[in-house]
């Protein structure tokens, strides 16, 4: 099979590539964008500030947060309103665990793609 692929892929340098996300209830909900949003919410303490850093509208960020919370079934983002500091947001321990697991999965996926690319050469 390897020799057949080399015969077929003779023009140019080819590589195996892909994107990785999780789906729940038939909906893509957890991948690079939502992970970055959660990390920035954790860093800034604010959905609004996280959205701004990503160049995303506040409305879009809220849609992502609501979808995450709904599909996972427990809050990944915890919001507080009012108070002396005007409220804010934090991510849950479950969100941190999900991010860690996803980052580990991405690393394994990256290594898989490298191994498959090496087979093309």
TrEMBL record:
Domain HTH lysR-type, first and last residues per copy: 36-82
Name assigned to this protein: Winged helix-turn-helix domain-containing protein
Lineage top rank: taxon: Bacteria
SUPFAM superfamilies: Winged helix' DNA-binding domain
PANTHER family from the UniProt entry: DNA-BINDING TRANSCRIPTIONAL DUAL REGULATOR MODE, TRANSCRIPTIONAL REGULATOR MODE
Organism, as annotated: Niastella soli
Pfam short name (any one): HTH_1
UniProt-listed InterPro entries: LysR_HTH_N, Molybdate_resp_trans_reg, WH-like_DNA-bd_sf, WH_DNA-bd_sf
